[in-house]
Write a structure and sequence with these properties.
Elements lengths: L2 E3 L10 E7 L8 H4 L13 H19 L9 E2 L5 E2 L5 E7 L2 E7 L4 E10 L3 H11 L5 H7 L6 H20 L8 E6 L3 E6 L12 E9 L2 E9 L2
Antiparallel strand pairs: 1-2, 2-6, 3-4, 5-6, 7-11, 8-9, 9-10, 10-11
Helix pairs in contact: 3-5
Length: 228
């Protein structure tokens, strides 16, 4: 599969980050073997597009892990489909059509990382999905945020995906979009409030921050969970 390193996004979080743009149409049966990356059995019958995106994410993860001398680590998924990272490594992967990225750190203060890349939703799609993604009390701040960015629901959806990824390793259970509510924003950062207690260390009312940036009809969000 053809891929090239992308410098479209410069992350705000100061961890190892790698992003590639790739051509899913160039994916073939040998692509995993050529990259020395394991194709999980769960994807044996998946369509080529799905396998190409998975491979692209794993290429990014492998590059990040190489920064810690773990480039040959076999990255498997657990029963919950979350990647099982090497001991003492905290990381996250994201991929969508034609672009993928990963971020990783060995900083012991970091308990979770979440990144997400999304392509801008169409206006009609944003309208149709608002009730699924927004907390009822987010309506007013969402309208204000919409005056600042052209795809506000895409950004908030992506941010909540990054929050889920960053907190999941601590919470160890699914939680929905209404578990967090956008309360503040500026031109690069969103602040969310937990609307329910997710864990003894993640209580209702606690703040979670997410960085965001929009470029070329794409959104990147980054979330870091640090214990004090």
């Amino acid at each position: 599969m053809q891929s090239t390193q992308s410098h479209l996004f410069t992350p705000y979080l100061s961890h190892h980050f790698h992003c590639i743009q790739f051509d899913p149409d160039s994916f073939d049966a040998l692509s995993f073997e050529q990259q020395n990356i394991l194709l999980p059995a769960s994807l044996d019958k998946a369509v080529a597009k799905r396998r190409a995106e998975f491979l692209a994410g794993r290429i990014c993860a492998k590059t990040c892990l190489a920064q810690f001398g773990q480039g040959d680590f076999t990255l498997l998924n657990g029963s919950d489909r979350a990647p099982i990272w090497p001991a003492n490594i905290v990381a996250s992967i994201t991929h969508t059509r034609g672009i993928a990225a990963a971020i990783a750190t060995d900083d012991i203060a970091v308990k979770g990382l979440g990144i997400d890349i999304e392509r801008d939703m169409k206006p009609k799609q944003e309208l149709e999905l608002q009730r699924q993604i927004l907390h009822p009390e987010e309506a007013e701040i969402f309208a204000l945020f919409g005056e600042q960015v052209h795809c506000p629901l895409t950004v908030i959806f992506s941010a909540k995906e990054s929050i889920f990824k960053a907190l999941y390793s601590t919470v160890q259970k699914f939680f929905g979009f209404d578990a967090v509510q956008l309360t503040q924003f500026d031109d690069k950062k969103l602040s969310f409030t937990l609307m329910e207690t997710l864990h003894k260390d993640l209580s209702k009312g606690q703040q979670v921050e997410v960085y965001y940036q929009c470029k070329d009809a794409l959104v990147l969000t980054e979330c870091e969970y640090i214990t004090q």
